[in-house]
Give the backbone structure.
Amino acid sequence: MTHITPAVYGLWAIMSVLLSAFCGYHLWHYDRFRCLRWDNPRSGVFKRFMTYTYILSLPTLATFAIGNAVIKYQEGFIYFPGHGIIPKPYQLWAKHHIRSIFPLMMILSFAWALEMITHLEELCFWLFLTNIRSAQQDWFRSKFFYIWMIGSVCAITYMPVITALGRDDPLKCEAWTFLAGSLGSLTLTILFIPVLFIFPNFLRNLETQGVDQATVVRLTGFQELNRARVVFRLMFTSTFLILGVDGVRPHHHVNESMFWTDFLAMVGSFGCCISSALTLVVRPQSSWVAILFHCLSL
């Protein structure tokens, strides 16, 4: 936060706004926003909940990025002997800017928690899909659904709590928030990797069972998108993990370097927004009922 330059937050703000705009365009092109209606007969409560969870994570992320970009540009840089020109430390900020640090970090923690809920649901459902044996198996009665519920409660609880525990020290608050969020997201990303190796066999089994070619082609497209998402999620989680780990250490070797701080933050924000965009492309097409019907009803 203090170490990152205004341009990085400016880039993050632009990308998050573009992602939100892309979300709006995609939902309009998909079904003219009908999927957002609570009384939409085509989607159940669970699907609407996941849709709202994903969409809510976008404006919260954009609010965090835009808020910090405005503050950083208003505060600017200072000359610090021995270090040269650096972004102004938060201790020298205007009081109203200092008071905004914790609310912005809390907004980020909620956005990150919502993101983890979405990714955990994807992981659990794809595991359910690749392990299903008959059309009579119910997603809502499977162990994977209960794993998702428990994990979601943990995510929406521990992220804000960790942020709140560090509110007295803005630098520690930021470091622990990034560390906790990146560890959670990295864990989900690593757990998703085996799905990429299981899925080709799953597709071959579908072909041998006589599933129509259109369904196989569609699921193959999902597989390619999932591979790309894993790459961008690794970019997103690993870079922020490095910044978080360095932030909680006594000596901040990475965070004291303007180049490495900006480079890792830019790569992380790029990976975050691109992976979220790919999630948006996949989610509306892969509704639970449609996939199960096409894969198992024949």
About this structure: The domain at 6-296 is CATH 1.20.1070 (Rhopdopsin 7-helix transmembrane proteins). The CA atoms of residues 5 and 50 lie 34 Å apart. Residues 284-290 have pLDDT under 50 and may be disordered. The first strand starts at residue 77 and ends at 80.
